[in-house]
Amino acid sequence: MTAGGAAERIAVTSDQDVVRVRQLVRTVAVAVKLSLVDQTKLVTAASELARNTLVYGGGGTVEVTRVENGRRAGIQIVFADQGPGIPDLDLALTDGYTTGGGLGLGLSGARRLVDEFAIDTAVGKGTTISVTKWCR
Amino acid sequence: MERVPVLKIGDILLVSIQIDMEDQVALQLQEDLAERIVASGCHGVIIDISALDIVDSFVGRTLATIASISRVLDAETVVVGMRPAVAITLVELGLSLPGIRTALNVELGMELLARERAEDDEDRDDDADEPAVTTP
Ligand SMILES: Nc1ncnc2c1ncn2[C@@H]1O[C@H](COP(=O)(O)OP(=O)(O)OP(=O)(O)O)[C@@H](O)[C@H]1O
Ligand SMILES: [Mg+2]
What is the residue range of the signal peptide feature (chain A) (predicted)? Predict the structure, then answer.
């Protein structure tokens, strides 16, 4: 996988920044010609993960990059925070598990909506989540 | 902060969400609607989401909460105009929106509300006519 363009980065420190993330991801998804359903899935996943970065991570950054894999184009999005980290990943990835009074669907649902999903988290250090969606 | 307008049309409150809502805007709508239901005495609420290109877990939860609050205040809520890509994504995210009535567009939503109201009134008449009869 190679980066096919300059990354765009948004600092996420408020509700408004989550809206900005959705808009940026939509713009890039249209540019790489993801199908409408795939655009919708990726923007929704990005909205969930950016909100987690804000609410649980105490804010952080979101970086959106156009990527290529052979002839396939795609988008990679990296959500990074220096918050408390996730002590039990399996639990956090369970549908319905929440420590914040949500529905507990953000993390597990976002994973279903993308093609590639990787989490790097350490208690007391922070959480980085990388997702990729490829054109079909 | 932007605000989503609530319009009164006949005996129905119509909310047409035209913006990508920040979380705070969605919460404000929840409060505004509760107040308008009580102030107007309306028994039906239609929320038109045809302009929304995504519904994430936060907006989904807000819609469900609005429906519950309305019910407690003797009003039925119908969510109308969901785009097909949004429906596909919501289900994959894991949100099936139980307890939310839906219709394809505003007109069908109004018909649904009118029909339900008529049935409710009939039930009430029945109860009044036959106070001694208990239906299981
Ligand atoms: N970036 C993060 N840093 C620390 N903890 C996190 C982070 N993201 C998620 N978590 C933890 O994982 C749990 C599950 O997250 P998930 O997004 O699935 O649900 P939620 O945010 O609680 O509810 P929902 O997203 O459905 O509104 C959270 O409640 C939180 O405890
Ligand atoms: Mg979440």
Answer: none
| CATH number of the domain within which A87 lies | 3.30.565.10
Rounded to the nearest angstrom, the distance between the alpha carbon of A106 and the centre of ligand 1 is: 7
Sign for the CA dihedral angle at B38, B39, B44, B47 comes to negative
Cα(A15)–Cα(A73) distance, rounded to whole angstroms?
A: 30
Q: What is the pTM of this model?
A: 0.93
List, for residues A41-67, the tens digit of each pLDDT value.
999 999 999 999 999 999 999 999 999
Q: What is the CATH number of domain B6-129?
A: 3.30.750.24
Q: Do A112 and B93 touch (CB under 8 A)?
A: yes
Percent of chain A with pLDDT over 70: 99
Residues of B with CB under 8 A from a CB of A: 20-24, 53-58, 60-61, 83, 85-86, 88-89, 92-95
Using alpha carbons, select from A12, A10, A72 the residue that is nearest to residue A38. A72
Angstroms from A21 CA to nearest CA on chain B: 11
Q: Helix, strand, or coil here: A99?
A: coil
pLDDT, tens digit (0-9, with 9 covering 90-100), for B83-136: 999 999 999 999 988 889 999 999 999 999 999 888 888 887 776 655 555 555
Cα dist. B92→A22, A32, A106, A124, B71 in Å? 18, 23, 11, 32, 27
Domain residue extents for chain B: 6-129
Strand ranges for A1-136 from DSSP E: 2-3, 8-12, 60-69, 72-81, 116-122, 126-134
User: Which of A89, A107, A121 has the most ligand 1 atoms within 8 A of CB, as the residue to mutate?
Assistant: A107
Range of the domain at A10: 2-134
> What's the number of domains chain A is made of?
1
Question: What tokens appear for B82 in the block?
Answer: 């969901």
